[in-house]
Each structure stands twice: as structure tokens, then as C-alpha cells.
Request: fold
Amino acid sequence: NTIAFALHFTAYAYFVRRDPRGMQDALKELNEVATKYDLTTWQHMPLPFHGYVLGELDSPDKALAFLSPIFRQFRSYLMAWGPAIWVLVCAKNGDFVTGLEVIEKVLGYNEYTWLAELYRLRGKLLLMREESPSIETIYNAEANFQQAIQIAQAQNAKSWELRASISLAKLWHRQGKTREALNLLAPIYAW
Reply:
């Protein structure tokens, strides 16, 4: 059980790093251990991770088909990383409306661990859903990225802060605010 726990959180670490190949290896080993020792929880708990890997390494459509029944059944009590996987798969499939709806629902759970990442993802999806984002959309996306940065700083969550800052810097760079983007990122890279 301890080995299964460690492998699950190894897969989780690969997810946070957005490394689907590393996740796939950890999940394969976890499945072998869970099957060998009949650890039912560890056979079912990582299913969202399998969906993420499927979407990244095979087909977003297959990932959506795989994850849909899981999230319909379990959405009400998943930790925020589960819906974050759902949002990423929705985005990869171009279903930004569902992704944004999932984020709104999860923000109501008061699940704080992934709060900064959820705000970052919301900003990203707002920009992705429009071919040429309106000024209002850009403003809302920027506000979400800034909220994500503030939350990450308050949590001392450096990886979330870096992600949100990169997202905001990319937005600013596209707007011609290159100096502001560099000024945002420079202190982060000096950690």
C-alpha cells in the first residue's frame, strides 16, 4: 500500500510538471502493484491521470470519452486536481465552455490547494475560446492571471506563481508590453 501511495504521488508530481510520459511510467508501475496486491483503491483513484495521459499522448477525443463517465459520477467530491485534468482535456478538445463551467463549480468547493492554477486555467481558457479576444476578455484573463499570482504568492507556491506569471507575461508580450513581461519574470528567475 505504501508503494502504491508513493507511485500515485509520483504520477501526481509528473502531472504538476505536465510530463505525460513520466506519468505513464508511474501509472504503469502503480497498476502492476495494485493488481498484484489487489489494491482496489489504487486501481481506481488514478483514473483521471490515465485520462490525462491518453489526451496528451494519444487522442483528446479518446480522453474525453474515457473521462466523461468518471467525472459525471465523481465530480462532487474530487479534489481540485481531478477537475483540472478535466479542464485541460476540455481545452485540448476545444470545449472551452465546459472547461470554464467546471472551473466555476470547483471554485465553489473552497479547495485551496489548486486555487492559483484554477484561476490561471480560467484566464487561459477565456483567451482560447475567442479567435481574436475582445478587450473585455483580455482584461478578464489578465485579472485571472494576476489573481493566480497573488494566491500563489500568499501560499508560497512557487511553481503556481511561475506558471501564472508566464501566462501573464505571454499575454503582455502579445500586447507589445515586452518590458512589463520581462520585469514580471526577472525576479522569479532570480529565486
About this structure: DSSP finds eleven helices and no strands in the chain. The longest helix spans residues 135-155. The mean pLDDT is 89. The radius of gyration is 18 Å.
